[in-house]
Amino acid sequence: MTPFRPVRRQDRLLDSSAAEELLSRGEYGFLAMCSPEGYGYGIPISYVYRPERHCLYFHCAPEGHKLDAVAANDRVSFCVVGATQVHPYTTAYESAHLFGRLAVVEDDAERWDALLALRAKYNPELADAPDTYIRRSFARTVVLRLDVEHLSGKCKRVPPAGK
């Protein structure tokens, strides 16, 4: 028995390739964790999706609430919302939601690769720039990897008015 519930509105289900495409192009997502105190802890966060590894990467400071939460419970969820459009009494949307386990990346080569991937996503104009900034901050930057265990996506399309 899987711990992941099926999407209730199967008529709005995105296929897996569309959900992965949304993860790839999303600007940021919402990471939901459980704090050591037992409360939900959710934050908007920049990320990069690596479909070939079936994981996402984030970076953070070497201490803080995120690291305390992952040390207490590595099970997390992550949600990305794509295009939305408000209509009278409804909203058109697309979203991808995943569940997985979050871990601190210890391997320096993987950390470096993840930081370069984040730079390529958010600053493609720096793709050929020297790695001076990353190299200078590398020792004080933690990289987290979210290994995807379950991914689903939903969308609601609203026809234009009068149709």
Give the key terms.
163 residues, alpha+beta, eight-stranded antiparallel β-sheet, 4 helices, 40% strand
Task: Itemize the secondary structure elements and their pairings.
Blueprint (H helix, E strand, L loop, with lengths): L12 E2 L1 H10 L3 E6 L5 E6 L2 E3 L4 E6 L4 H8 L2 E13 L2 E15 L3 H15 L9 H6 L4 E15 L7
Antiparallel strand pairs: 1-8, 2-3, 2-6, 4-5, 5-8, 6-7, 7-8
Q: Rg from C-alpha positions? A: 18 Å
Shape: globular
**Cα distance spanning the termini:** 43 Å
Number of strands: 8
Helix segment count? 4
Would you tell me the overall average pLDDT? 89
The SS-based structural class is alpha+beta
- The portion of residues assigned to helices is 10-25%
Order of helices and strands: EHEEEEHEEHHE
- Low-confidence parts lasting 5 or more residues at pLDDT below 50? none
Largest sheet: 8 strands, antiparallel
DSSP strand content: 35-45%
